[in-house]
């Protein structure tokens, strides 16, 4: 190939890369600009950056931990926070790497988050707390409740992962590294966090009732997915390559606190059969099945969920 042709090809590739980078940056900027309900609460200066959280209410503390899906944030509990705050002090946060929290370039693991939960309760809440954890964050809460039992009084898990999930393999290191690349990783993330893909996810796996997948529900996940910067690709890379996964059965079996398990009966990606495994490990715990819900019974059937949680702790 002649030098002139090579230079032309390099120019075309360079222009394409530059255009793609600009598009990625524009997606985040536009989402931030158009966010109809962008509200900033307080920030906890953790060792890996600032963690965004909201505190509302008075009474005994409840810490709400969102799922690990793209767009996971405190907004997932938008139908629960106000009601629960009538009786308790509610702490609803965005886990490091998610929502409006900082997104450091680290490998995000279950132990990273378990350590964070303990630090947050110690330094911000200031007293032992009830922890309510949704889906993937149930792994982190379970580990924290076992390793730092002095800080967790009650544990409520909403269809927790870590029961039959695959763990990261050595080969996943290379895939994670690729997903962390600025151009490629951000492009892949922007595809999976588009409104179209989020809507598809909510229709297929998130919600049981398709009529509930409205603009409000989609925005609940879309805007937090683009909360701050493109560095969100780091947490996504760890999630997509299973680095966040942990087998929690051993931890769960050895817990000695009140436990409540809630499961969406129609959950597809984490089927209700996994609840039976937890029943064998902790038969004296409380187990509740929410009919006609999938991953987010606290969103799809907020009234019943709130009523249940309100009765978990006695003043």
Strand order of the largest sheet: 1-2-4-3-5-6-7-8
Share of helical residues? 40-55%
Round the Cα radius of gyration to an integer and report it. 20 Å
**Strand pairing plus helix content: what structural class?**
alpha/beta
Distance between the termini: 79 Å
Whole-number count of domains: 1
**Could you give a short account of the major beta sheet?**
8 strands, mixed
Proportion of beta-strand residues:
5-15%
For this structure, what is the CATH class?
A: Alpha Beta
State the shape: globular
Mean pLDDT: 90
The CATH level-2 architecture is identified as 3-Layer(aba) Sandwich
If you consult CATH, what is the topology?
Answer: Rossmann fold
H and E order: HEEEHEHEHEHHHHHHEHEHH
What is the CATH homologous superfamily assignment? Answer: Alpha/Beta hydrolase fold, catalytic domain
